């Protein structure tokens, strides 16, 4: 057994008094591909960011080649040979590949930037990785996501990286681009570079990784050789807790009514062949990997990037939705994925935010309808100093309640919730779940998009799984066996088991 | 890894923005030449060319500096005041004595550099928005000028006036110096680390910082260079007028230089563009002015036309840089374009490896 390249021992980290990592250990050997897995919120990204020098650990030690290290800045980590490819690429779109790779340490000759050497060196690195057809002089803006990822990896290699961590590297890649990444990782292995691979896609972990470390709720579950594991074992380690009990049950009197929203053959540049119907009182969960088209579907229904083909009906009546304004007129509400930039006017008051949709779309009746706002906010158990407080001072959970209030006050017929519980605490999550149940009981049709499988399974009546812009399967939540539910969904989301998917 | 080559080349923009700028300049010269010819005059007469180039040089100095700050996603609204101040510093220091020319130039540019440094420090360290920071610094300079220099002051040495009036053929010396400075600026952006970092800081400050770029220092350097370039414009004013003049700050060089930069294809929010384009933008504005003058266009119509041209140009650039997520489907064609025939074998191979 070789000596470990990297060891992280007893890593602890808290944010605002909330412990997110409880003493995690991780060892990575030279030239291995090491998977880091866990559910959302398990602490994977935090651990990665500590390794990358973005965060500093509160306690614990990191050693590289047996030497203790402490990275205060990402540039320091890179100099030491620890590079990270984040999901959000750190590239300048208007600069060339070579300029990006050598940003901050451009090679110089007689005091001048040696552009020729910069390009030549980049070309050599690309060749080392076996990449052909990617010009060192190409502008990053003109590259595909997969090519940009290659640039990030080249950038890491230019630092003589000995370990590259990758955060969900395949999340935004199309199928054949994933094959490209596989080969690149193979090549990195040959070059003796260790790869720390963070992914949700179990198939990739078994395809690529030598060992896997599982985190759960900020603690280490264990590290084992992938060869000794089955998919079932791995999922059990990742989930390992009962989800019943956390999600409120369906309210008595909730009945499935007529179809409120129907899409037939919907498609645009991001989506294809979408057939969908949601009934009154029904909660339909949308599962899928990031970039699978769930948010694009929400945007299509809400008129942000409308369907260019197909037919949409609301309550049996054909609806031409070309803009969010029209969507609201048809009684469709959308709680966006990113509430800070798309859901709220952060430096306006709670009251102003809650009236935003009302004032925009029904200005004449807004005054009357707005009388319902205070009652609505208190029924949502909003915690604030007063309704004139600016929403940027609220916690994530309370901000989300304001977003919800903004929609509820217009009494929508169809409610689309895109990651409604992202980044909010457990108590607020529970409040959101309870509210969703109440809305369903009141006859609303609900589309719940979530990356947390447990949430989709726990809340939805029906689960629609998306992959690469198409619906890859539909499951009846009631008939889904509890112990294999997540795997069934994952199989559909990754296309791992194409036979069962259709 | 075949697929990368085709996609990278297929989506390359057909023309660089700088090329578009110079094509536009050519077009305006052509149209202007024809319109002027139609009135029985000629746009390309010696006098008109001199007029055009003289106009260009003053705005050019300022716009070259402005390009650097705008590339860094900053802005400098104090340039007009710096021009006025440096003309006064040069003229009063020189006081008609040819021996004091170097001293006066150094003093004027030094004062300008200090103002640039203050601008840069306020923007980066006090984190005041550049719009407010440079406007504030500019107002402070204005206050000083208004209090101490009600009219022209100082006197430049006759030899120094050569900078303003010497011509080599139809080419004014000042225009030659301006183009040389532009060349130096282009070299700076291409061949120095600081130049490269300006694009990075303007493109994405976080990316720059994560890559170890000293972002504050870069912005400060840009502000200093911008103020010094405005100082050179002040020297030109002094040499032309024979004296220092406080009132030039009213000539609107601050906004006009920004217009020239943007017209030259530099993105107002930084990270993209360059001095080559700015030079084109300066020439376009100067050509328009000369054409309007020759045709004696009503000043009101003149400003309206300038405004329309600037807006149209920027609207065209904005269209050019529209980028979207790559399409996954045609939006009207039924079969999705995957899997690509050439990659079928590899994809299948990877799939076959599933445990």
CATH C-level category of the largest domain in chain A: Alpha Beta
Measured by residues with Cβ under 8 Å of the partner chain's Cβ, the largest interface is: A-B, 62 and 53 residues
- Tell me the CATH architecture of chain B: Orthogonal Bundle
Mean pLDDT score of chain B:
86
Please give the share of residues in helix of chain B: 55-70%
The name CATH uses for the topology of chain B is ABC transporter involved in vitamin B12 uptake, BtuC
Global Rg of chain B: 24 Å
Tell me about this structure.
The complex is a heterodimer of chains A (502) and B (355). With 502 residues, chain A is α/β, with parallel strands linked by helices. Chain A has 2 domains: 6-239, P-loop containing nucleotide triphosphate hydrolases (Rossmann fold, 3-Layer(aba) Sandwich), CATH 3.40.50; 268-497, Rossmann fold (3-Layer(aba) Sandwich), CATH 3.40.50.300. Chain A contains 20 helices and 22 strands. Chain A has a 6-stranded mixed sheet with strand order 6-9-10-3-11-12, with helices on both faces. A 6-stranded mixed sheet of chain A has the order 18-19-20-15-21-22, sandwiched between helices. In chain A, strands 2-1-4-5 form a 4-stranded antiparallel sheet, covered by helices on one side. Chain B has 355 residues and is mostly helical. Chain B has one domain (14-321): Orthogonal Bundle (ABC transporter involved in vitamin B12 uptake, BtuC), CATH 1.10.3470. Chain B is built from 15 helices and 2 strands. Chain B has a two-stranded antiparallel ribbon. In chain B, strand 1 (167-168) and strand 2 form a beta hairpin. In chain B, helix 5 runs antiparallel to helix 11 (215-241). Chain B is globular. The relative contact order of chain B is 0.17. At the A-B interface, helix 2, strand 8, helix 5, helix 6 and helix 7 of A face helix 1, helix 9, helix 10 and helix 15 of B. Chain B: Pfam families: BPD_transp_2 (PF02653). Chain B: Its main location: membrane.
């Amino acid at each position: 057994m070789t000596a470990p390249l990297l060891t992280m021992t007893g890593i602890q980290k808290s944010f605002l008094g909330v412990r997110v990592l409880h003493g995690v250990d991780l060892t990575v050997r030279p030239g291995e591909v090491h998977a880091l897995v866990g559910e959302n919120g398990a602490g994977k990204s935090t651990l990665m960011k500590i390794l990358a020098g973005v965060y500093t650990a509160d306690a614990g030690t990191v050693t590289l080649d047996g030497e203790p290290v402490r990275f205060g800045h990402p540039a320091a980590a890179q100099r030491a040979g620890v590079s990270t490819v984040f999901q959000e690429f750190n590239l300048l779109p208007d600069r060339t590949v070579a300029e990006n790779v050598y940003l901050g340490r451009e090679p110089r000759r007689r005091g001048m930037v040696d552009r020729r050497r910069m390009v030549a060196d980049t070309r050599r690195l690309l060749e080392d990785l076996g990449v052909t057809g990617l010009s060192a002089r190409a502008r990053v803006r003109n590259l595909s996501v997969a090519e940009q990822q290659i640039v990030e990896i080249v950038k890491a290699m230019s630092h003589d990286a000995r370990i590259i961590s990758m955060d969900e590297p395949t999340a935004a890649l199309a199928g054949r681009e994933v094959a490209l990444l596989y080969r690149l990782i193979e090549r990195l292995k040959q070059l003796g570079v260790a790869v720390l691979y963070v992914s949700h896609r179990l198939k990739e972990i078994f395809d690529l990784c030598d060992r896997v470390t599982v985190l759960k709720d900020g603690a280490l579950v264990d590290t084992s050789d992938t060869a000794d594991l089955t998919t079932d074992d791995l999922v059990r380690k990742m989930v390992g807790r009962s989800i019943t009990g956390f999600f409120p049950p369906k309210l008595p009197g909730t009945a499935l009514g007529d179809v409120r929203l129907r899409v037939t053959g919907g498609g645009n540049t991001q989506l294809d062949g979408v057939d969908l119907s949601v009934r009154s009182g029904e909660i339909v969960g949308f599962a899928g990997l990031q970039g699978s088209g769930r948010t694009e579907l929400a945007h299509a229904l809400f008129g942000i990037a409308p369907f260019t083909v197909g037919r949409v009906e609301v309550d049996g009546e054909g609806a031409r939705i070309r803009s969010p304004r029209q969507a609201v007129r048809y009684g469709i509400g959308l709680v966006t994925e990113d509430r800070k930039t798309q859901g709220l006017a952060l430096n306006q008051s709670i009251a102003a935010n809650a009236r935003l949709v009302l004032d925009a779309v029904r200005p004449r009746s807004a005054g009357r309808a707005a009388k319902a706002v205070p009652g609505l906010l208190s029924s949502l158990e909003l915690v604030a100093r007063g309704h004139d407080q600016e929403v940027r001072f609220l916690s994530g959970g309370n901000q989300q309640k304001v977003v919800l209030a903004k929609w509820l006050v217009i009494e929508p017929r169809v409610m689309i919730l895109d990651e409604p519980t992202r980044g909010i605490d457990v108590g607020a999550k529970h409040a959101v779940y309870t509210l969703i149940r109440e809305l369903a009981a009141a006859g609303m049709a609900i589309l719940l998009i979530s990356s947390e499988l447990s949430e989709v399974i726990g809340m939805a009546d029906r689960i629609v799984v998306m992959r690469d812009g198409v619906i890859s399967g539909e499951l009846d939540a009631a008939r889904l066996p509890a112990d294999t539910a997540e795997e069934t969904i994952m199989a559909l989301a990754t296309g791992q088991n194409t036979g069962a998917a259709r | 890894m075949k697929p990368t080559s085709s996609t990278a080349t297929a989506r390359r923009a057909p023309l660089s923005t700088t090329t578009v700028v110079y094509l536009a300049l050519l077009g305006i010269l052509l149209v202007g030449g024809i319109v002027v010819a139609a009135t029985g005059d000629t746009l390309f007469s010696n006098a008109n060319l001199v007029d055009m180039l003289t106009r260009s040089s003053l705005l050019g100095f300022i716009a070259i500096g402005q390009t650097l700050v705008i590339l860094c996603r900053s802005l400098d609204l104090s340039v007009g005041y710096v021009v006025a101040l440096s003309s006064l510093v040069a003229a009063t220091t020189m006081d008609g004595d040819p021996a004091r020319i170097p001293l006066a130039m150094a003093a004027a540019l030094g004062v300008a550099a200090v103002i640039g440094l203050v601008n840069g420090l306020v923007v980066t360290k006090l984190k005041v928005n550049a719009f407010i920071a440079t406007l504030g610094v500019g107002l402070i300079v204005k206050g000083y000028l208004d209090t101490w220099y009600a009219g022209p002051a100082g006197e430049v040495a006759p030899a120094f006036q050569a900078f303003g009036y010497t011509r080599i053929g139809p080419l004014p010396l000042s225009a030659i110096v301006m183009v040389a400075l532009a060349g130096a600026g282009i070299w700076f952006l291409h061949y120095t680390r600081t130049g490269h970092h300006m694009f990075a800081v303007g493109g994405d400050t976080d990316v720059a910082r994560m890559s170890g770029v000293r972002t504050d220092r870069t912005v400060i350097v840009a502000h200093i260079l911008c103020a010094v370039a405005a100082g050179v414009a002040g020297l030109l004013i002094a040499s032309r007028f024979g004296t220092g003049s406080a009132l030039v700050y009213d000539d609107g060089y601050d906004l006009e230089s920004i217009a020239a930069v943007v017209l030259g294809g530099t993105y107002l929010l930084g990270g993209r563009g360059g001095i080559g384009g700015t030079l084109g933008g300066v020439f376009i504005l100067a050509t328009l002015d000369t054409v309007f003058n020759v045709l004696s266009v009503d000043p009101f119509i003149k400003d309206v036309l300038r405004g329309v041209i600037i807006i149209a140009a920027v609207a065209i650039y904005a269209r050019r840089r529209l980028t979207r997520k790559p399409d996954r489907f045609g939006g009207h064609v039924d079969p999705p374009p995957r899997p690509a025939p050439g990659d079928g074998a590899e994809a299948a191979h990877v799939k076959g490896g599933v445990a």
